[in-house]
Amino acid sequence: MKKIVALSIVAAAALSLAACSKSEDAAANATNEAALDVNATAAEAVTDVNSATDNAADVAADNAADAAANASDTAANAQ
Hints:
Elements: H1 2-78
């Protein structure tokens, strides 16, 4: 009888440890997935900012060229 009770306790302890370790693994996996998602989002944000900066520089250069051309046209028309 004592062996059956002892075996039952050991089996319950083993199942408890197995259940706890699986939830810790699941929590670790969830944390890793969240970290990967944050890193991917940050990388996308950096790409978006770089693209916006490049586009702004192109627009500024085009506007400066247009302003120079307009000034040249105005000077030619004034003469």
